[in-house]
Design brief:
The structure is a single chain. This protein is of the alpha/beta class and 236 residues long. The chain has two domains: 147 residues, CBS-domain, CATH 3.10.580.10; 89 residues, Histidine-containing Protein, Chain: A (2-Layer Sandwich). The strands form three sheets. A four-stranded mixed sheet has the order 6-7-8-9, sandwiched between helices. Strands 3-4-5 form a three-stranded mixed sheet. It has a two-stranded antiparallel ribbon with strand order 1-2. The longest helix has 20 residues. The two termini are 27 Å apart.
Length: 236
């Protein structure tokens, strides 16, 4: 199995000049824990994750150390911490060293990067441009979907997945957060979050209309935006 078989395409990204408040609001709205940072030339220059917001001046969570430790640290490192604590732009708080992988790389490549660097996501880059992202959630969905399957992914399965993702992207009713789509032997498995229960039926219809689809398995969770109440997919 390759990266392209499980990655989330059409990645939500932000500009390095965007405000910290804007990206925090975007992550909450999209229910995602990290976003790549892409400059105006389309180059990947960093990534912002929940971890970058752990210590912020707004929440009073800055590190407090004895003066002698600060003296040993030196002004350079202290200045860097101050910028991450109080900076107002994404470029001030983002992590500049981003782990990337090619879409045609084996899935094992992403897993090795996550293990080695203790990260939760790997950005997928093709010819210098961001084309997707692989998260731990993507891996879990793949494992859950294919745990009892032995046959390799077919070209028809890949085509079904690509057509369905394109269809969801084109629809105005499409979910705010990306829907994970996995296909095996013509069986489409949907997982992710919707904020309107009626989207569930629309997702099923979109999948069923694609030639080659034999069945659709619904594992989507509905979350009520105001109360946060959630409802899992009905039992099949």
């Amino acid at each position: 199995m390759n990266i392209s078989d499980v990655m989330t395409p059409d990645v939500v990204s932000v500009s390095p000049d965007a405000s910290v408040a804007t990206v925090a609001q975007l992550m909450l709205q999209k229910r995602i824990s990290g976003v790549p940072v892409i400059d105006d030339r389309g180059n990947l220059v960093g990534i912002v994750t929940e971890g970058d917001f752990l210590r912020r001046a707004e929440t009073g969570t800055g590190r407090k150390r004895p003066r002698w430790i600060e003296f040993l640290m030196g002004p350079g490192r202290l200045s860097e911490e101050y910028v991450r604590l109080s900076g107002r732009k994404v470029s001030d708080v983002m992590t500049r060293e981003v782990r990337t992988v090619a879409p045609d790389a084996p899935l094992e490549a992403a897993i090795r990067l996550m293990e080695r660097h203790n990260i939760k996501r790997v950005v997928v880059v093709d010819n210098g441009k961001v084309v997707g992202i692989v998260t731990r959630a993507n891996l879990l969905h793949a494992i859950a979907s294919f745990a009892h399957e032995i046959a390799p992914l077919t070209a028809e399965d890949t085509a079904i997945r690509e057509r369905l993702l394109a269809e969801l992207k084109a629809q105005p009713w499409g979910p705010v957060t990306p829907i994970d789509v996995t296909v095996r032997n013509g069986v489409v498995r949907l997982s992710g979050i919707i904020t309107e229960e009626r989207q569930r039926q629309a997702l099923r219809v979109a999948a069923e209309n694609i030639p080659g689809v034999k069945n659709v398995e619904d594992n989507v969770v509905w979350v009520e935006p105001v109360s946060g109440m959630f409802v899992e997919a009905p039992m099949h």
